UniProtKB/TrEMBL annotation:
PROSITE patterns: LON_N. Pfam families: LON_substr_bdg. This is Peptidase. Residues 2-184 form the Lon N-terminal domain.
Amino acid sequence: MSRLLALFPLNLVVFPGEKLNLHIFEPRYRQLVRDCIESDITFGIPPYLNDGVSVLGTEMKLLSVEKSYDSGELDIKTKALGVFRIRDFHRQAPGKLYAAGQIEDIRDDPQADAVLKERITGYVRQLYDALGLRKLFLDLAPDYRIYDVAHHLGFTPEQEYQLLEATSEQERQEIVVEHLEHILPIVLETERLKDRARLNGHFKNLTPPNF
């Protein structure tokens, strides 16, 4: 069943469960924030990719207004809920400055594959260690989802959108495994070369071979 949802296109992909801080300065989106406060509505962020508004987006709930400026600008905190598909895009919602769309919610299968998850966890540990991000790995909850790590895996916005298109956790796991198996050797070799480069120019304590 479709419903009308206010839209706020942005040049980024937002995943369900993600918390996003935004600085609001355009009058149309200041109006949107006011409507969220006064009418308790949600809004959607469809990624603006390749010079166009994407068909899929993520529904957002306003959590709080952290700061209001004299200029009317706002700092807000939001949380992503679920993924939707735009059936009909309107450049302006009825009587509003901001866009809207007739949307349908997308059902998602959250069941993960245990074997894939174990492989991904090992790959993520290697990647974070190589990049000096071990704290990110240590902070990872045992029941983490792909959405929880997706922004830290070296995906392009287009690849992140591919994750948004997936309708099951297992499908997202398969995408991530393929991606990590491709980039991890490159990252590890790059870091190895950087370590070697750092050694150049330093005094080395080497044991000569016995002839």
